Amino acid sequence: MDFGLAGARALVCGASRGLGYATANALAAEGAIVSLNGRNVESLEQAARRLRSSTRAKVVALAADVATPEGPGSLVARAIAEMGGLDVLVTNSAGPPPGRFDELNDAAWEAAFELLVMSCVRLVRAALPALRASPRAVVLAIGSYAIKQPLPNLVLSNSLRAAVAGLMKSLALELGGQGIRFNCILPAWTDTERVRQLMQDRAQRAGSTVEEETRKQANESPFGRMGQPEEFARAAAFLCSPAASYITGVMLTVDGGMYKGLF
């Protein structure tokens, strides 16, 4: 199926590795022009070179910290200048640190709020003029299935990613009349560096091994395994594409059946 992404101008945040990189790769493979964002210049440039080599697409590396007040606006402006506009915005960032409620002080909550919620608010605000001028405008927020099924030792992520989902649903209703779609995609446990770090935290708390914790988590899926980044990315590319033109305001779980609820 042709997703209709050829020539689309996409900014993907948190794209030097993990789910952001996989999403950028899927968009570039469909013919999109892609601006990659991350904080580490060297890692970002390496990711851009890999994508250019594998997809032959135009790929731009734009380093910026979206958790700062000035980062999102500057990033969006540079992406628009590089690509000549903006059709697709994928909001994404590193996850906040694991921890239980009693372990987290105000500073941890404030930092997580800036990282997860305000980064998204500022990115969308900066992107809106360009998105309003696009005939295929879409914003996709990469979240977590934890907003539907909270996960142990991740109270920051459980709480604040839900705020992002509420924002996306609200914007879908508020700005749908302007032709802009807003969706959330909610991965479960996928084989990324971030997940391996979380398995290490679990192993330390439980006095077990990373391998044992990974096996236990994988068994939560009917498939008996975690997802692969490219499996997630195919769903993300679809939601970013004109092929999903009548889909807005959704919270799509890509979870291999790990979420046990009906809705």
Q: Major beta sheet, specifics?
A: 7 strands, parallel
Rounded mean pLDDT is 95
Based on CA inertia axes, which overall geometry fits?
A: globular
Strands ordered across the widest β-sheet: 3-2-1-4-5-6-7
Please state roughly what percent of the residues sit in beta strands, choosing from under 5%, 5-15%, 15-25%, 25-35%, 35-45% or over 45%: 5-15%
Helix count equals 8
Q: Helix share of residues?
A: 40-55%
Structural class: alpha/beta
Radius of gyration: 18 Å
Q: Report how far the terminal alpha carbons are from each other.
A: 28 Å
Counting DSSP E segments of at least 2 residues, the number of strands comes to: 7
Order of helices and strands: EHEHEHEHEHEHHHE
Low-pLDDT parts are none
Explain how this protein is built.
The chain is an alpha/beta fold. The chain contains 8 helices and 7 strands; from the N terminus they run βαβαβαβαβαβαααβ. The chain has helices at residues 18-29, 41-55, 71-83, 106-132, 155-175, 193-206, 210-218, 229-239, and strands at residues 9-12, 33-38, 59-63, 88-91, 138-142, 181-187, 251-254. The protein has a 7-stranded parallel beta sheet, sandwiched between helices. The protein is globular, with a radius of gyration of 18 Å. The two termini are 28 Å apart.
